[in-house]
Amino acid sequence: MQTQSLWEHTLTFFPQFLAALKGHASGRATVAVIGASDGKFVLPLAAAGHHVIAVEKDPFALHGGEVSLPDDTTAHALGLTDRLKRESLDDQVQVIEQDFLQADLPEARCDAVWTSCSWHYSANHHTPLADFVTRMQALVRVGGLFGAEFMMPVERRHHLIEHYTSPEKLGLHFTADWNVLLTLRTNQFTERPHIGRPHDHTHRMGLLLAARTGT
Ligand SMILES: C[S@@+](CC[C@H](N)C(=O)[O-])C[C@H]1O[C@@H](n2cnc3c(N)ncnc32)[C@H](O)[C@@H]1O
Question: What is each CA distance from 180 to 46, 96, 167, 172, 174, in whole angstroms?
């Protein structure tokens, strides 16, 4: 669906997550989206009939506001809550406006959890990456699905920050009670300017999908 998200044009492995979700949840699933932003993934999940728990700490992403565009004009950006209302999907989405690392979320109740390029944000660097990953894992019921796409290191400084990781390193967090289903990575690619990054910039992304096999 057309969400008109600020992040609409970024590369994503979300289709691989959706395909795996079909095999791990029948019918209406409960899916937690961590770092939900303005809803690029929340809206299609809700439109597909799923119940979504959307965790996001940025008030601008949730409630919208004025944005400066690269051509020096401004525009009003809608936030997640307005987008949900506009599509009449607000009944299906529980928005949690909190830092995921502090949020009190129900354990082992979700059929799936998904995040897209969230844990590399500098606000998360004060705790080990393991904290973020373990908290995500804890949300997933036995038989459920974990999905994360994430930034891999590109610049020199990234190699000093463990939150820019690789499928191999991330896989080390998935031990006895997890079965890693799929890992993928891109080559380096150039992304067009978007909010917060006014110029072309280079990324490299990884994906890890895993199923929970035990408690
Ligand atoms: C790169 S954006 C998401 C872009 C993505 N392509 C999309 O769906 O819209 C990552 C989001 O994660 C959020 N985020 C990062 N760390 C977080 C945390 N600890 N708690 C809640 N949200 C977080 C950021 O505020 C940001 O909105």
Answer: 26, 28, 10, 10, 7
Average pLDDT over residues 207-212: 98
Instruction: Quote the CA–CA distance of 134 and 38 in Å, as a whole number.
Output: 24
State yes or no: pLDDT of 181 exceeds 80: yes
Task: Kindly report the pTM of this predicted structure.
Answer: 0.93
Residue nearest to atom 10 of ligand 1 (CA): 118
> Residue 8: what pLDDT?
56
Domains along the sequence of the chain with CATH: 14-59+93-212 (3.40.50.150)
Model pLDDT, residue 71: 76
Shortest-distance atom of ligand 1 to CA 10:
6
Q: Is 17 in the pocket of ligand 1 (CB under 6 A)?
A: no
> Ligand 1, atom 1: nearest CA belongs to which residue?
117
What is the Å distance from ligand 1's center to 34 Cα?
7
